Amino acid sequence: MRCRKCSSRALIRLPRHNSAFCAVCFDDYVLEQVRRAIKGDRMFGRDEGIAVAVSGGKDSLVLWEILTRLGYRTMGLHIDLGIGSYSEASRRKVETFAQPRNLSFVVHSLRDEHGAGVSEIANGMRRPACSACGVIKRYNMNAIAAEHGLPVLATGHNLDDEAARLLGNVLHWQDDYLEKQSPALPNAHPKLVRKVKPLYRLAEREIAAWAVLQKIDYIVDECPNSQGSKLLLYKDALNRLEAAAPGTKHHFYLQFLDRQKAREALVPLVADLRECTSCGQPSTGEVCSYCKLIATLKVAK
Ligand code: AMP
Ligand code: ZN
What we know:
The protein is built from twelve helices and ten strands. By secondary structure, the protein is of the alpha/beta class. The strands form three sheets. The protein has a six-stranded mixed sheet with strand order 5-4-3-6-8-7, sandwiched between helices. A two-stranded antiparallel ribbon has the order 1-2. The N and C termini lie far apart (62 Å). Bound molecules: adenosine monophosphate and zinc ion.
């Protein structure tokens, strides 16, 4: 197997592009996909500071490494969800990544703030842990990025994540979610930062391979709360389709984005948002989902 670009010995095969690359050309390919996403979707400019949401997993650490290499000004942002040894190990991966590289980061600990981790908070509200976790992460990431004057929040969502989410949204015909599923979401309120996903053109296995080549040490375990999640089921289904017909995932998601752009569906939802009467953050209701979650915790105490 030869590299498609330079004909030296290839290291990785990319069936969806009907090609293979050596280590050097694969590195070029990965960086180019991220540059293309940032530019093509007008994610951010050179002069903007970027909050990078880092979980300690491969995607977000790879994202941080690439944005740093491309010369962007970043700040890492880690939410310690208080899920026992899993969260402790995740936090350590973020710290051991950032320190030798001299990258600045903040850690927000749920236990320090509320005396409870995400599982206890979710129990209090009788919600599945993953849905409470989503509310908590979105709320804190936005608030912390804004607090530090950073206009953009970048997450490590990749092509597999976005295709699986699209499949879920289509299977349940969730029109609201379909409208808002974008790799570059404008801010719908002055207190909201822009949300971007610069890795959306890269498949999970490509990111994993790049992480190994770069010797990035990341947490391999999945979150213990995610077992049996629907998203994992959709990922598995898409992986089976991909194995039989390479390019399916890529085609499914990128064609969706092309159609969405053509419809110009991304009108900022300014009119739909007001400010939470409890914390002042943007909300669709009188009290935001985060304050509702935290209120149940106080009642339970
Ligand atoms: P997940 O929903 O766990 O697949 O994570 C998707 C993206 O959200 C990751 O690539 C990170 O950018 C971000 N993220 C997830 N968990 C955390 C966390 N605990 N702290 C900061 N960012 C996170
Ligand atoms: Zn609130």
